[in-house]
From TrEMBL, chains A, B:
Record keywords, A-Z: Aminoacyl-tRNA synthetase, ATP-binding, Cytoplasm, Ligase, Nucleotide-binding, Protein biosynthesis
Gene assigned in the entry: asnS
Protein name per Swiss-Prot or TrEMBL: Asparagine--tRNA ligase
InterPro entries found in the cross-reference section: Aa-tRNA-synt_II, aa-tRNA-synth_II, aa-tRNA-synth_II/BPL/LPL, Asn-tRNA-ligase, Asp/Asn-tRNA-synth_IIb, NA-bd_OB-fold, NA-bd_OB_tRNA
An MF annotation (GO) of this entry: asparagine-tRNA ligase activity
Organism: Funiculus sociatus GB2-A5
Length: 462, 462
């Protein structure tokens, strides 16, 4: 019976007959035996396989069984004498599906730099590091769905192609069916969008929030989980042109409820990953960042600290710590400030609230002081801001005023304003950058290494 | 304690104190009482609320409580004397968050056409029909994740922006950061892509399959579930420019395994929806299509019929039925043929296999007869093709030959071919058009009515 290696390693019993299918990681030959390490992607650990010379096709297959070759091996489980494994497979039949020429197959048994592995994005998932990253990425994804579905939230598929710019900011990619070699013109020499697919300019979305608000006004609790885009020309280890976002939106909810949900949400994801991918997490702790397990425990076990932006500024102004960027009420916090608060002052995640109106988006609810809005950011040790959210402005007149104050045209937001015209309610939500979460979880330094096929300036391979 | 209406209707007990938050659907006034129907999106059914004239703010709130107004009502549950409900809420306090002016609010108590509701996509989810559609859409989505996660498949996020065209067909949207008013040119008067974000032409993906194959070669079993795009100028009730697809990919799997998985997959989704959204399904059966419940039972309870394309053609040629389109070996089947097989001949889902090479994609595994490929389509009563899949060509030389035969350049597929160079294995997968599934499930006639914010020619609102 074909079994996944993860199941064999966990539950396989001596004398059990099993068949495994996977790829050879290493081969060692001794006088009478050969040992293979075979991996099928179901776990970090390989299954050790013992090939005896009296296998009928031993001479033939042993030449084919190089690193990367694909095999199906049937045999009997036996207790392992070697260290590091409880059980191994004594092969009775070996079938090689596909070889991997050791002269040209790039993944030979040695350490490769992440930079090099990015150039072979179609093969890098076959390494220990990327195997672990994408198993953890999957576990985070499913934990997110579980969390919301158990609470009665609906997953909403908000549109990727959009004619509006949610935040009134952010550089956007254009989506067009026009031929770039020959863009049609109107008599006034403008682009003739009447010939374009949508009849007007269209872009890749930067956020599903406004549409999520639409749906929250019908279903009370919803969330998005999908790709979003920035055409920002930032060739850094922190930016992607295409990345996944999670954006819950709750009707009849204020900022307190928003913070409660966000905290429970992060704890749930970390718990789920620690339970289902513990071996992968230990790998990262050993090889990549020896604080990831402690950080996970910190998130799971501590109540997040909550304080206002104003109090945080006062606190940062009092400290002896020197910062590269200035600290002053009204200025946005930099990563160094955020990390200082989370790592040095509170030594756990911190939720800052009530930011200055000027540095936050128009849709955030204005406080009575008119100087601050009901925004919140969750700052995590090691990474800084991981979640940003707010209570939304549900008052029609205030929202109109704030749209105008930002130089935007209220007419463009007619449908968003309608939500305040008809049955408006207090509501709130937040956004989680999914790749930032996976980085935070694994300690991986470059955001391009936590998404299967990264898109960035001049980078659109595979 | 705030409770969701779905939970109150299911489990609420007389004398229980509860608070509900939602939107008024209707109001009826009698001499001494007013009755409200309130909905919070958690279920099709409303909660009936009784307002007594001795409520302190009765005169004030009764004027505000029009259709669409948002409310928070606290009170005590009492057995209902009216028909159609077990329990109702006797209000003790009523708070109106937001009114909805009956003069301008478009969703008054009467039936609206789906055409009209499409023009108010930001409000239509507040109707019974769209409430039911999007609850079912969510249930299908979660059932899909559950199905694969329980079987150890990893959810893979394949890229949206792509430089390659998976199927060598399909019209694609261009993604660019260039200014369309002033597209830069090279000396040869070509588009100067060196100034574009990715340094070369980029498109919106038409399928994640090739990337899913990459990941299956590392993790054995994976699936995608995300948006895909077609720039086809089809202004019909069956086409969207942006739609969601599910694409599992399994290493060490042949077409038999592919069909087994696809059949189990469809059965699982229908079962899950029938269990979790039965009230919504009954609504569709009563109001939209009186066969949807029978169709769901048919899918769940019948073993799908399997036969070859060649046998299906023979069968269609023999029948007395007249068709609009010709039936002949080598031609693709039309919807009328597919439905005839599923509805008239077998009266259940049918899986056709081994289609002519010429009408299928280059990556499908060539049979020994060289005239057919190991493709399969699942044909469902009422809708025709719902799933299309194949065993993939894993033999390097055959794949190269087929790429060339289709006039494509093997150099563009270097990484896809590498999967056959290094540890190639038999593998298979399929694609499910997610909106087609939701249409099939609900009986909704227009595909634009099963996705929250449809994108189609000249349609990019909200």
């Amino acid at each position: 019976m074909v079994k996944r290696i993860v199941d064999i390693l966990r539950n396989g019993q001596p004398e059990e007959s099993v068949t495994v299918q996977g790829w050879v990681r290493t081969k060692r030959e001794s006088k009478e035996f050969a040992f293979l390490e075979v991996n099928d992607g179901s776990s970090m650990a390989n299954l050790q396989i013992v090939l005896n010379q009296d296998l009928p096709n031993y001479a033939e297959v042993i030449k084919q069984l190089n690193t990367g070759a694909s095999v199906e091996i049937a045999g009997v489980l036996v207790p392992s004498l070697g260290k590091g494994q409880r059980i191994e497979l004594k092969a009775q039949t070996v079938k090689v599906y596909g070889e991997a020429d050791p002269e040209s197959y790039p993944l030979q048994k040695k350490r490769h730099s992440f930079e090099f592995l990015r150039t072979i994005g179609h093969l890098r998932s076959r390494t220990n590091s990327f195997g672990a990253v994408f198993r953890i990425r999957n576990a985070c994804s499913y934990a997110i769905h579980q969390f919301f579905q158990e609470r009665g939230f609906l997953w909403i598929h908000t549109p990727i192609i959009s004619a509006s710019d949610c935040e009134g900011a952010g550089e956007m990619f254009t989506v067009t069916s026009l031929n770039l070699r020959n863009v049609p013109r109107t008599e006034a020499q403008e682009v003739d969008y009447s010939q374009d697919f949508f009849g007007r300019p269209a872009y890749l979305t930067v956020s599903g929030q406004l549409e999520a608000e639409v749906m929250a006004m019908a279903f009370s609790n919803v969330y998005t989980f999908g790709p979003t885009f920035r055409a920002e020309n930032s060739n850094t280890s922190r930016h992607l042109a295409e990345f996944w976002m999670v954006e819950p939106e709750m009707a009849f909810c204020d900022l307190e409820g928003d913070m409660d949900l966000a905290e429970a949400f992060l704890k749930h994801i970390f718990k789920y990953v620690m339970e289902t991918c513990h071996e992968d997490m230990e790998f990262f702790n050993q090889r990549i960042d020896n604080s990831v397990l402690a950080t996970a425990e910190n998130i799971i076990n501590n109540q997040f600290e909550r304080l206002t932006y104003t109090d945080a500024i006062a606190l940062l102004e009092k400290t002896d710590q020197t910062f590269e960027y200035p600290v002053k009420w009204g200025l946005d916090l930099q990563s160094e400030h955020e990390r200082y608060l989370a790592e040095e002052v509170f030594k756990k995640p911190v939720i800052l609230t009530d930011y200055p109106t000027e540095i936050k988006a128009f849709y955030m609810r204005l406080n009575d002081d008119e100087k601050t809005v009901r925004a919140m950011d969750i700052l995590a040790p090691k990474i800084g801001e991981i979640i940003g959210g707010s209570q939304r402005e549900e008052r029609l007149e205030v929202l109109q005023r704030r749209i105008e104050a930002q130089g935007l045209n209220p007419a463009d937001y007619w449908w968003y304003l309608d939500l305040r015209r008809y049955g408006t309610v207090p509501h709130a939500g937040f956004g989680l950058g999914f790749e930032r979460l996976v980085q935070f979880m694994t300690g991986m330094g470059n955001i391009r290494d936590v998404i299967p096929f990264p898109r960035a300036p001049l980078t659109v391979d595979f």
